[in-house]
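Most newcomers find our protein records easier to grasp once they have seen one. Sequence and backbone structure share a record, each on its own labelled line. Nothing more is needed to start thinking about how sequence determines fold. As an example, a complete record with its sequence and its structure tokens follows.
=====
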Amino acid sequence: DKEVRAIFLRLFAQLFQGYRSCLQLIRIHAEPVIHFHKAAFLGQRGLIENDFLTKVLNGMAFAGFVSERGPPFRTCDLFDELVAFEVERIKAEEGNPPKMIKHVRELAEQLFKNENPNPHIAFQKVPRPTEGSHLRVHILPFPQINEGRVQELLQEGLARSQGAPPATRGDKKCVVPAGPPVGMFICS
């Protein structure tokens, strides 16, 4: 399934190449608003008549995409790298299926590594119970829970968490690479 995901990743990277050059940051509100200039994007790519891309850009999913990926300072990922740095490679591979397949497999491997950062850790399988194990009498019953002790532990945990700083995610934020301007991607 990683190869299928890699194909879609490439597809959307090709569809949205240069989208960052059509983002406008509007700072008239307390919170900055990010606006995507659809007409400029379609016009510079020569795709004004393309109904599919027009419908994609008008959809709610693309609006969410812009609000999530529009900020210039956030955690970058594989999609950002494809859009910003792999433009020429994707163009060159259009007429060469073996190179395209090789790139898809590289992306799939990267997706797999992103989801499994520690491949050396093996997951232990839980063994199946033996036949007749449910008939054994030496299994101890589950112990009774002391409600008073549970409440004490909850109160201690709440007291500690109120004094502790809020937990933050370990992702490093960086300036998102803009990539080449959208005018470079004139499609036929």
Q: What stands out?
A: Residues 1-116+170-184 form one domain.
